[in-house]
Amino acid sequence: MAAFVSGFGLARASAGRSSVCSKNAHVTMMAKSKAIPFLEAPAKLDGTLVGDVGFDPLGLSATLDVKYLRAAELKHGRIAMLAALGFVVQEILAPKQSGPFTEPDPFLAIYKVPVEGWYQIIAAISLVELVTFKENYDGSAEPGNFGFDPLGLGKDKSVFDKYALSELKNGRLAMIAWTAFAIQQIVTGKGVIKQLMEFQPLM
């Protein structure tokens, strides 16, 4: 009788453990991305990096280093912020300039840049890539952090993370904005400011 009771107890304990393990596995399997709730959260996007909300619909983090991806995102975001500003500045200042810098359309303005200007642009881009190549590809440094903080805004870790998140969000917004500016320019033939002043629905 004692053997029977003991065996029954062990069976119940084993079933209980199996149930708990099953539930834990189910929860792990069903963990969803904060950014896209109907997709599973990417395994490598665990919230360690500032601004990580599990957005990876193409699954790039499964095959590429997360730090490399973040460095690329920051680089594109910074370029996009400059590009979005450049769209507006080009439209405002170009008519007031002289020589090859009078074209308000950013796309047409590309063809007005002198050859010497292109040499300078390519040289500057190459220099930046050479200086940051090692850190970006071997993950030895914090992504996108090249120690550029002339105002000393990031001395405190919490403040630094706050500004890092702000930069990341503004960069993401700028990438969307620049794309919208470009499509608008191509479709309507009008600059951002002119389009706002003469707004008319396309349909």
List keywords for this structure.
Chlorophyll a-b binding protein, globular, chromophore, chlorophyll, 61% helix, disordered N terminus, Chloroa_b-bind, 203 residues, mainly alpha, 6 helices, 2 domains
Describe the structure.
Chlorophyll a binds at residues 73, 76, 167, 170, 172, 184. Its main location: plastid. One of its GO terms (molecular function) is chlorophyll binding. It is found in: Plastid, Chloroplast. It is a single chain. It is built from 6 helices and no strands. By secondary structure, it is mostly helical. The chain has 2 domains: 1-30; 65-197, Chlorophyll a/b binding protein domain (Chlorophyll a-b binding protein, Orthogonal Bundle). The protein is globular and about 55 Å long.
Total strands: the figure is 0
Helix content: 55-70%
CATH superfamily of the largest domain: Chlorophyll a/b binding protein domain
Name the helix and strand elements from N-terminus to C-terminus, one letter apiece.
HHHHHH
- Estimate the global geometry from the Cα principal axes: globular
**Spatial extent as radius of gyration:** 26 Å
- Low-pLDDT segments, ≥5 res: 1-13, 18-28
The count of domains is 2
Structural class by sheet pairing and helices: mainly alpha
Largest β sheet strand count, sense and barrel closure: none
Topology at a glance:
Layout: H1 2-29, H2 66-93, H3 106-110, H4 115-138, H5 157-188, H6 192-197
Helix pairs in contact: 2-5
Binding site for chlorophyll b: 61, 78, 129
Pfam families: Chloroa_b-bind
GO molecular function, one term: chlorophyll binding
